[in-house]
Amino acid sequence: MIDLPGRLLRNLAPCRCAVTWRIAFSGGLDSTVLLHLLAHLAKSQSLPALSAIHVHHGLQAAADAWPDHCRSVCDALGVPLQVVRVQVQPGASLERAARDARYGAFIEVTQANEVLLTAQHRDDQAETLLFRLLRGAGVRGLSGMPRQRPLGKGHLLRPLLDVTRAELEAYADEYRLNWIEDPSNQDRQFSRNYLRHQVFPVLTERWPQAVATMARSAAHLGEAQALLDDLAQIDLARASTDSEFDWLGVPSLELAPLATLSAARQRNAVSHWLGALTRLPDSDHWSGWEDLRDATGDARPLWRLTDGELHRAGGRIWWLSGDWLGTPPAPGTWSDPSLPLALPCNGELTLTGQICDGPLQIRYREGGEIMHLPDRGHRNLKRLLNERGVPNFARGRLPLLYQGEQLLAVANLRGLSGSANDGWFLHWQPPPAIKV
Questions:
Q1: What span, in angstroms and rounded, lies between the C-alpha atoms of 84 and 95?
Q2: Close Cβ partners of 176 (under 8 Å, ≥ 6 residues apart)
Q3: What are the beta bridge partners of residue 83?
Q4: DSSP of 33-56, one letter per residue?
Q5: Which domains does the chain have, with CATH numbers?
Q6: SS3 for 9?
Q7: For the chain: N or C, fewer Cβ within 10 A?
């Protein structure tokens, strides 16, 4: 038998300095072996604190007994267990919805300097490669599951990706481990189950090393993706210029450096940038990027994606999500300007210095606003915003300070945000631009 404990320790070496190792413990064969290995290694090795997390989806009646099974296993091994119940959102793919719910729970519990360990193995990697190939995935998808990646405030690590299912079964038999057999794993309406039970037996009968060679191909594609990531970072560095409106806190890139690249390099750079912000469309649905890129100067193009929108303004592309996608309600009267004012769905407002007495109101643009400037007389607000190049998506959110019907200030804009002579200014802290 292979030295499974020794291999596991070598694979875990990069994260030995973590505070905690959390084991994603479903109760099935793979995670049971991983938990057992780590619990026994902890007796002779100086390891981070161990704990386990079991995610209960509640998708089938049999699953109600699984938390108790997991508790009994963890109690026997002396490993603390956290059971998290999640709600699986309905959708076209139950597999994906369950995975999203599961990883959402993992993200919530994984803190800084902690590592979540999952038990996917080499057979899983081969299945992932074939499954994604059949869906038309690109290099990133075909590189399979990464051995490690950021997760929540910590990291995820898959230390068994070079171990086969047969090796895990042999270990479980040697130590007489008990595990849960999920009935849904036999349901071949699920794509992965169909591949596992119908396709891979035929492949391995003809090509016995199919699983190993497919996993190796995934590793090669992972290296290719790393090179593409390096290229994306080079291209993004040229587009990551400063903007006069960085104070908005909205992620943005300068468009011109991107537009000089080939179409393939544009997609590579933009998808790398967007990958941390949203789920990406497949290669057949990138026309939104082309429309955004090629729009005429006076157009207001946007590209709607799963978790937000990409806008174009002032020669830049801007990522909006969360509160930035809605229309904030009018705040109304500011009863005590000496205190910060929380703006519903629109951040916070503060007033520094002493303003003249009288009730103050905060409003947003409706059109037709006029502002009196000491050196220029009465000016249309739209023209003033045009002069300062304020991005269109931000104009309806800029807090306007009124006293009666007089527009006194526009938050944060040079020359419009207060009175230099009287020493008072209106400061706006915009809402977070990234959905959390």
A1: 18
A2: none
A3: 54
A4: HHHHHHHHHTTTS--PEEEEEEEE
A5: 4-224 (3.40.50.620), 241-320 (1.20.59.20), 332-429 (no CATH)
A6: helix
A7: C
C-alpha atoms less than 13 angstroms from C-alpha of 167 in its C-beta half-sphere: 19
Rounded to whole angstroms, how far apart are CA atoms 397 and 404?
20
Burial letters 13-40, b for 16+ CB under 10 A, else e: eebeebebbbbbbbbebbbbbbbbbbbe
Residue-wise pLDDT for 184-205, tens only, equals 778 788 888 899 999 999 999 9
Q: What is the four-CA torsion angle of 332, 335, 339, 342, rounded to 10 degrees?
A: -20
Of 243, 254, 255, the residue nearest 388 (C-alpha): 243
**Residue from 125, 98, 103 nearest 182 by CA:** 98
Q: Helix or strand or coil: residue 331?
A: coil
Q: φ and ψ at 40, to 5 degrees?
A: -75, -35
CA distance 46 to 35: 16
- What is the distance between the alpha carbons of residues 354 and 357, in angstroms, rounded to a whole number? 9
pLDDT tens for each residue of 323-340: 999 999 988 899 889 899
Share of the chain above pLDDT 70, in %: 99
- The span from the CA of 23 to the CA of 45, in Å, is 17
- Residues β-bridged to residue 149: 156
Residue 124 tokens, joined: 């899983």
User: What dihedral do alpha carbons 41, 28, 220, 223 form, nearest 10°?
Assistant: -70
> Is residue 379 within 8 Å of 373, Cβ to Cβ?
yes
pLDDT digits (tens, 9 = 90+) for 259-299: 999 999 999 999 999 998 998 887 778 899 999 999 987 78
